[in-house]
Amino acid sequence: MSIEQIIGRYVTVNVGGREQRIYFEEAGQGRPVLCLHTAGSDTRQWRHILNDAEITADNRIIAFDMPWHGKSLPPEGFQTEEYLLTTDIYMETVLAVAKALELDRPVLAGVSMGGRIALQLAVHHAEKFSGFLAIEASDFQPAWYDIDWFHRPDAHGGEMGAALVSTNISPHAPEAERWNTLWMFLQSGPGVFRGDLSFYTQDDSLVGQLNSIDTNITPVHFIVGAYDFTCTPEDAKRTADQIEGATLAVMDEVGHFPMSEHPEGFRPFFIDGLRLMPRISAAAE
Hints:
The protein has 285 residues and is of the alpha/beta class. Helix content is 32%, strand content 18%.
């Protein structure tokens, strides 16, 4: 029998004038690293990093389910509204969680839509963080599919979402982890993936804004999978080139969901990325 080191709890924060009861998991001690999941999924994507004894020996890894995702319920009255994630609400949620957990300038590690919001926060609230790991992230990515397919009465949204993302998982991904990753999308709530993709493909673009980031104060490191065709290595490079001092690493055997689909392929790149992030000393606090 093996009991994992991950601890799960809830925190209530106020976002947009509404209370949100948010589920988060953490493991380890030391420098805080706040991790964001992809569209249509949840914190389970980070389970391998949370269980990595070497990483958690000197890093406090924290991951949370966005409202409407995983174990975080939608806000009261959700049944009367359409879920559409926006840049402002997303940034406010991340900042509210960091404040509620009393995280002093954590490293922010976001994947896909989480990587996009990490870049938005690097532009608008860099002072709140010590650095950014922008994973499978770009300045803007137009949709190559109709997002309305993910919320129709004649189609199963979870199965539609899983079918789409299955094509964006590397052929090198272990079979068990491929299906674990897909299962999270199969379980996604009605309309949630569509609402996330609305943010990812239709909300605020970062084109023309990234040159304001000062990497001497808050470094930005991009990590992208060679098999990611939603955010290709070329997309990530185009974006990184707009930020003076940003760095980029390409994972040869990984697709769009690295920490979940191919944890062993992702691990060394994540560790290298953390090494590039500064540690806030007690004297500086």
